[in-house]
Structures are given as structure tokens and as C-alpha cells.
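Q: Could you fold this chain for me?
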Amino acid sequence: MSRSLREICETIGVEYSGEDRSIRGLNTLSEAAPDELSFFHNEKYRRDLPKTRAAAVLLEERFAGELPEGVLPLITDEPYLKLALATAIFAHPISTASEPPKLLGACDIDPTVRFGKNVTIGEGTVIMAGCYIGDDCTVGAHCLIHPNVTIYHGCRLGNDCILHSGAVIGSDGYGFAHTREGRHIKIHQLGGVEIGDAVEIGANTTIDRGALGDTVIADGTKIDNLVQIGHNCEIGENSLIVAQTGISGSTRLGRNVVMGGQSATAGHLEIGDFATLAARCAATKSLEGGKVYAGVPAMDIRLWRRQQAALMRLAKGKKFSQ
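A: Sure. Below is the predicted structure, expressed as C-alpha cells.
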């Protein structure tokens, strides 16, 4: 449902007396449409300011001149906090309302499964006891959803997928803006989760919905048990993510990336195609593809092995060979 720009500004406490516009939702600078509101607070995304197509942008006054003609500046010294307040306006209404799903063919669905509204299930899909599938979700054909899986509203699951018990798809990402007094204001997560074909997701794995835009898991990716994937991550096709891995928000993995057990990334990183992170490896910066990494922080595994050998010699009191 669209909202008046002036109404939004009044609700979030931003002064604005220019022309009014109808705002359909919120989005990032690079993805925003002409009927969406955006924001700018991180220098990393400054390059997107002159190219944004948003109707209006929350930002500090010193950056207003970088917006393209026709994009309205909404001046504030707290753009991230004002964004958080704006997300509440567009948050999905939570309801216990339920209706039968639309079935695109014969399915095997346990009678204890509960659905929200406007759910579509593909032919040949099996959904076992205790599952919940929320409003506006789509599940593809020939999927197998094991007991007690939860899929929040607005998520899309491709064909031939397997979700193991306890998996949670589309839970809120961990996003908060902070006031000057130290209070934490929830950023309502307005995106969804898009899962491709032939994806397998392990038991008790959690995949957060996007804050703005979707979290994406591409075709053929296999995810082990107890994995956490943060909001707005993009996982490339045919990647392998092993148990207890944690991927922080807005990280992009290329295709065929392997992440070993208990490995991790910081947020807003890019991991190149065919990169491998060994067990307990932690990426603190973006990594090139086609290499194997180990250690904390992540480094080429050959350097890591030399480092470990040197530490062992030190521990044993041996001299280094030149």
C-alpha cells in the first residue's frame, strides 16, 4: 500500500515542505524505483547517489547536491535512524489468518501443516508434520519439507528443494539503528528470501530475510545443519556451506564457493568464484576466487601453513632456518 511522502516525513520526524509523492516502499539507492524511498549513510555506497532512481533519499545536507535531478532530498543528520522509523510504516502486518494453499498438482501435505494467505505449492511436493508456511509464499514442484520447518511470509522456494527439520527461512535479519541516548530501534525487515532450484538446507539452519530487497540462495547450493545466513546475502550457485558456518549480512558468495565447518565472514564482503574457506577460517575482507584460504584473518592456506610451522618452532624453542 502506497503512502504519502509528506505523511512519511511527518511520522519519522523529518521536515519537508516540497512536492508530495506517492511512495510504494523502501529500497537501496541502486535498486530503488521512482516510487520508492531510499537512504544514504555509508560512504561505501556514495557512488550510487548520482545514479539512484528513487523518488526521495534520506541523507545529510552535505550530500544533497550529489542526487540526480528530480530526486528529492530529505535532509536529516540521522538518516539511518529515520530509515528504521520508516520501515515500521511498510512492515508486513502479522496475523494468524489462514487459508488453504493453491495446489498446482497432486501433493502430500500433512494435516497439521498450517498456511498463511496466498500460498502456492507446486506439484509433487511433500510437506511433513508441524510446518508453517506464511503469507505470499511460493513453494516449487517436487520439494521435500521435513517436520517443523518454518517459512515466513514473502519467501520463494524453487523446484526439487529439500528442507530439513527445524530450518527457518525468512526470519528477521539482525538490524537496529541507535539513538543518541543509546536505545536500539528495530529496522523492520521488508525483503524476502529467494531460493533457487535443487537447493538443500540442513536441520536448524536459519536464513534471514532481506532488510530491503531479498536474500538469495542460487540453484544447486547445499547448506549443512546449524548454518546462519544473514540478511541480504547472495549465495552463488552450486556453493557448499558446511555446519556451523556464519555469513554476515550483505555478503556475496560467487559460484561454487566452499565454506568449511565453523567458517565465517564479516558483512558486506565479496568472496570470488571457486574460493574455498577451510574450517574455522574467518574472512574479514573480500577474497579473490580460485584460491584456498585458512586462518583468522583468512589468508592463502600456504602462508597459513608456514605461519603454523613457524609458531610450532617457536613453541619448541627451535631456531628458524634462513
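A (continued): The chain has a mean pLDDT of 96.
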